[in-house]
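ugh ok fine here u go
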Amino acid sequence: MNRKEIKTTRMWHYFVDATISIIEQDGIENVTARKIADKAGFTVSTIYNYYGELSHLIFFAAMRYLQEYTDEIPLYMNRGRNYLEKYLLTWECFCKHSFTKPKIYHAIFVANLGEQPDVLLKHYYSLYPKDLIGIPEDVKHLLFEQDLSKRNKPFLELALQEGSIGQGNIDEVTELTVLAWIAMLTLLLNNRRSYSPEEAAEITMNHIRTLTTRLLEIPNEKDHTI
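structure:
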């Protein structure tokens, strides 16, 4: 990297670290550009020289909290005997961690990030490549896909190829599954339910399994229950 690139990278890290500090102290919902600027020792206008929107900076800071999820997802996937089970297990792991930190996962996967959230995701991993150390290649596609409808779809496509599912509308299943997850996340964020993270994950996974079994043809369905 040249000097300009090194300076830019350093500034991105400064602002992300400041945002994380505010999240720890005040909560992600109380992050403001003024607080970040004061914490980092720069002006508000300087922040917007590097981040197009405040939501982008919050996104980068929130991504720093995904390490437990990225560490566990390979372990969950390894438990799957076929791609149908891997699909369900990836959602099980995602529900477990997202309902433990609903505000963080909302900032990453639901909040308005503008027109190019995938660009932000790739930029994040270019700044924090160490987050990918030890992640198997067949898991990395999950981490680089910000669209949840597309994130797990390849597992169902592979399940169709291997015969663990028969005919069915894979697009409909993936879309409805994401909506089920967002609905639960919204209930938790708005205090409409008093579920524990474990209860929320169990209820959501029951919905996901029901959607999968009703909308997809699953041979020997009893052999694929997780």
